[in-house]
Amino acid sequence: MSKKKGLSVGKQADRIDQGLAAPSVSQGGDKAGRDGLRRVVITGAGTINALGHDVASTLEAFREGRCGITQLDFRDVERLSIQIGGQIHNWTPETYFNRQQILLYDKFTQFTLLAAKQAVAQAGLNFEGALGLRSGVILGTAGGGLNTWDENYRAVYEEGKNRVHPFVVPKLMNNAAASHVSMEFGLRGPAFTVATACASSNHAMGLAFQMVRSGAADVMLSGGSEAMLCFGGVKAWEGLRVMSKDACRPFSANRNGMVQGEGAGVFVFEEYSRAKARGADILAEVVGFAMSSDAQDIVMPSAQGAERAITGAMTDGGLNRDQIGYINAHGTGTAANDKTECAAVAHAFGHHADKLMMSSTKSMHGHLIGGTGAVELLACIMALRDGVIAPTIGYQEADPECALDVVPNEAREVEVEAVLSNAFAFGGLNAVIALRRV
Amino acid sequence: MTEDIKTRIRAIIAEQAMLDPEQVTDDATPEDLGIDSLGLVESIFAIEEEFDITIPFNANEPEKSDFDITNMGTIIAAVERLVAEKDG
User: Fold this and answer.
1) Residues of B in contact with A300 (CB under 8 A)
2) Domain of residue A78, residue span
3) Looking at residue A27, what is its pLDDT?
């Protein structure tokens, strides 16, 4: 595929030392992946979500099958018909940010920066100098600074104020988090934000993977964030009448809708030979990514569209169906998504569908919308690295239309070689990522 | 009053289904009228706005809702009850 196969590692290093962000393709030393493409590994992870303020506490909750969905707590919540969500409690931004930063960072940016700092600390990377030129950030979000919109609309419409804070625009813009991550670490390569509703994070991570694999960058921070749990954010979702008032029960016959969550997940995607040479702890390898569009309906999902993304990710990663041991489902807990997703998986995997495990961790952390794929990638890493499969909690009744092993209610210890993470967005936009154990 | 409610609901459904109000008969199901799940959610919103009522309806389990959407007759009866409760 690549036409730069002759470029030696030595020459590449020289060019970077000169400050030239030249495309690099490492072929010497460690063997490259299929078709001469570079291999991409995850060397750092960070998160904050309803289950915990870091990766360790989140994985512990996954293992315990703990539910992070609680009574919502924010201004005007009593005017909502939906009262539950995967809300982050005890969030004290002043612990992490100074006064000026808090004025400039919407909650979705705050969550992102916290997760990014954890990920970079784990990776042990310093982006000063040449590496910063070869590194970037791609993040997903659907609502961006929705709390900032909400607060300021309230001020001008409800309270009749005629003045808003000067930072409203830089605070609410969807790329604010990506820009602040870029500034925080000095990532001077590709940096942007992807908005594809519930698939935003998967699209973002897929693009980041492709950039490292192709040689457009050596290190990419990627993932996503959402902070939609405010009056306007939940009120908008109420309108669709797809929200549950009591619990998120994916794949259970008595499921009655989705439950929103909030938070962020950020990962360090790094070129494999580089990570290995510096002795980094490799969490997992990203091997495949595919996206597809249903081109059909703005809200109703299509099994064919989902299946094309699933099979596409396996093909892209050079994986056979029987190598996939676990799928982190989109599993929203709506009637439509869960049966459509199960049909897509059953068709894509044939007989192997009865052998693989598929769970939805949204039952624990809620649906983080644009940030959901990022937090859910943690369950994929846990499956590969620790051999622990996160459960689908709240599962009560078998549904013949969801007749797969959904790992009901209790985590399971099983070694798996390769996994998929599904995300299927409103608008019919699908994005599936394939990871493999290293 | 009852006739009025019926007429107003039929007008709302007819607009959603792009039919004449006369075609919206009591025994017609939403499906008969070509109203899909999103169209139904839209119709329910329009009825709520028209009568200033709150209709308990979850698209994930329409059969379990207190709001019976079997056909136009049941929908009209349910709205009449909600309007009466509001006025009562």
Assistant:
1) 37-38
2) 40-277
3) 40
